[in-house]
Amino acid sequence: MGRMRAVLAWSVFAAAIAVPVAVALSSPLLAWRQPVYIAAGLAGILGLAIILAQPLLAAGYLPGLPTPRGRRIHRWTGAALVGLVLAHVGGLWLTSPPDVIDALLFRSPTPFSAWGVVAMWAILAAAILASLRRRLRLRPGSWRLAHMLLTSLAVIGSVVHAILIEGTMGTISKWLLCALVIAATAKAFADLRTWAAVKRLKT
Amino acid sequence: MTSILTTRRGLLRTGATLAGAALATGTSGLLVPARAKGIAPTPSMRGGSNNYLPDAPIVERIGGGGFWMTGTVRRAGDGAPLEGIRIQIWAHTTEGHERDPHSHGATLTRADGTFRLEMPQIVPAFGQPHGHLAYDSGDFETVFLRPVMGSASDTSLSADFVLQPV
């Protein structure tokens, strides 16, 4: 029974990532894009996949990866997410500099750009804070609150960004992946009693 | 003599007449300045000038064609159609990126102020299937437009210019 559940959990997780990536890789739009543009788009999709993995790893939901091991991987995947975000923005910049400059300056005609840029800054801020956590000697409650606020912003920003884009991702697999991201994040925050830490901080 | 004002029905009728008069005056009061101002010039759209390459050549069509960019050009104020106005067009299509010179071309408006230029199918890029158009010839204020297609499968797109003389 336990083994069956583990296989099922990993299968759902793997499919939630593999199916949207496979659909995107078979998009007809790729035929009319340069390699750097294709790579930039793919980096964004893989980033969204990592955003799904992050709460699962942090809360130890993935069978075989309980909290201490999961947390260690969470840090590495967090670093990988930063790399993917930079590759995403950098690749788009090479493809069309004025569109990316407009996005970064929040003057783009497309609303999803602003959501994406907000998510980018939230991810970078969360990563910087995580790397300075020891040096800043943050109290566990303060750290959790700050990490939760930044990652919530990153999740919401990334999901809205992805949903609003008409790109290589398939509609159904994109919506399913985004729904899983929201559900996993919400459950992890609830289970990790982040709000309890916030309440303790207040008193 | 004053009985019509003292009955309830009379009061209502008087009120309705007064309200009607006020409405008529009010409406015309709003319309007059609007008519005096005339047709307002089209403002440039956000991101409209992205990947603009000035002086795109006037062409029969851009690339292999199959997609139509259409529109009108009128003068601000009186709304008169403008003939011989050079409109530059570019987009991410099945034949090239926005930055590729061969994705750019220009056409001239006809006597009725309309223009149409055949070009390759526009495909979604940077999250939306969209085209770019520019008026940048000097006699009127420069305008950059960035219309978005209702659906990526559309085979035409239109954009209208109202130009402000300089």
TrEMBL record, chain A:
<protein>
    <submittedName>
        <fullName>Ferric reductase like transmembrane component</fullName>
    </submittedName>
</protein>
<feature type="transmembrane region" description="Helical">
    <location>
        <begin position="145"/>
        <end position="165"/>
    </location>
</feature>
<feature type="transmembrane region" description="Helical">
    <location>
        <begin position="36"/>
        <end position="61"/>
    </location>
</feature>
<feature type="transmembrane region" description="Helical">
    <location>
        <begin position="73"/>
        <end position="94"/>
    </location>
</feature>
<keyword id="KW-1133">Transmembrane helix</keyword>
<dbReference type="GO" id="GO:0016020">
    <property type="term" value="C:membrane"/>
</dbReference>
<feature type="domain" description="Ferric oxidoreductase">
    <location>
        <begin position="44"/>
        <end position="156"/>
    </location>
</feature>
<keyword id="KW-0472">Membrane</keyword>
<dbReference type="Pfam" id="PF01794">
    <property type="entry name" value="Ferric_reduct"/>
</dbReference>
<feature type="transmembrane region" description="Helical">
    <location>
        <begin position="114"/>
        <end position="133"/>
    </location>
</feature>
<dbReference type="InterPro" id="IPR013130">
    <property type="entry name" value="Fe3_Rdtase_TM_dom"/>
</dbReference>
<feature type="transmembrane region" description="Helical">
    <location>
        <begin position="171"/>
        <end position="190"/>
    </location>
</feature>
<keyword id="KW-0812">Transmembrane</keyword>
UniProtKB/TrEMBL annotation, chain B:
<dbReference type="InterPro" id="IPR015889">
    <property type="entry name" value="Intradiol_dOase_core"/>
</dbReference>
<protein>
    <recommendedName>
        <fullName>Twin-arginine translocation pathway signal</fullName>
    </recommendedName>
</protein>
<dbReference type="GO" id="GO:0005506">
    <property type="term" value="F:iron ion binding"/>
</dbReference>
<dbReference type="InterPro" id="IPR006311">
    <property type="entry name" value="TAT_signal"/>
</dbReference>
<dbReference type="GO" id="GO:0016702">
    <property type="term" value="F:oxidoreductase activity, acting on single donors with incorporation of molecular oxygen, incorporation of two atoms of oxygen"/>
</dbReference>
